[in-house]
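Protein modeling request. Please complete all fields; requests missing the sequence field cannot be processed.
Requester role: graduate student
Desired output: 3D structure, token encoding
Chains: 1
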Amino acid sequence: MPIPSRSELDLLVADIIAASQFNAADSLHMQRAIALAEKGRFTTAPNPNVGCVIVKAGKVIGDGFHLRAGEPHAEIHALNAAGAQTHGATCYVTLEPCSHYGRTPPCAAALVKANVNEVVIAMVDPNPKVAGKGIAILVAAGIKVRIGLLAAQAHALNPGFILRMQKQRPFVRLKMAASLDGRTALKNGESKWITGSAARSDVQVYRAQASAILSTASTVIMDDASLNVRYSELGASQRDYPALYNESNSQLNSLSDRETLQKQVRQPIRVVLDNHCRLDAHVESSSSALKLFSLPGEIILVNGAKESIDGKGEQRSADALRDNESVSRIEIKQDRHHNIDLNQLMSALAQQDINELWVEAGATLAGALLENKLVDEIIIYLAPKLMGDSARGLAVLSELTEMAQVPKFSFTDITQVGDDLRITAKPEY
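Delivered output (429 residues):
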């Protein structure tokens, strides 16, 4: 088929959305697909979470979800489960079927080959370069397409993937722990532990869902922070982990063994802002070793580009990193305050296929991210404690002289976690 132009694709999609109607049965099947998609949230990055349900004569004949990049997509798992029954069936999928050959063949073509009668899609592919192309393949083959069922819920499955496709930066969640009076550490820097064990277990679940964890050299050195997912601390939160696909028998199995969990669920990339190459001495040194470098998983050290032009900075990093394959370095230009340019950093992380970025750092980085309008969601664990006005605050912000300048947020969730409150809010930029 001839390749439609972008304007033709946009018009095709708009016309289908305008004409699409759904009933209660449609909603139930798409809800099942969305629930399936959520099972991949710890493993699919950098790919999106996608679920698929295939129905014939009102009966589900196959379903599946995408588990890991490079492995079959949700539609393929569902088609395999349905077998020879797919002729004339209806397929419900949370994201537009792919139209291109990557590490796996296009799902749109597989649906055509399976002779399905109709495809119901929750949302269009967010990549503007490919959006609508999978839909065009289906329409050209005479398959009926409806679009827009439970679109908001489908969007919520992949905020990072969508933002990376549309704005070339990851979705940023800023996590902080504070006392009732908004303090994150005592004046001397001590902060262990403001919150209780239940809150710390909850943090591990968020870490496990992230593509990467961002912190600073100061935090790593001061706290000897590991910035990894600590499976021993998952506790009751382990029930949130997904059923994983067992390829040997094509069934979805509940995962209970923690060792297996460690093997199956990836560690997020650890990204550390090290503007002045302070961590170089710790990479290979046994006498000053940090936990960060003793644990498995990829580490990216982010240096200020200015440091590399004096000759010393670049050579020190090259020597320190040469024999450590898990540690890499990127250089980001500095802003007018001689700090790492955070907007350029976000672009660089998007180029590394990082969808969701979990930030755990001090008040300086928190304030800088907020002032650059780079925080998409803020999560504060609030402990029932008072630490006093000499203790350290949540975020370092430029001096404000009017209440109209004060950053505003809207609460999206308030949940008690153990003795603490978890407050989730979105900035109103």
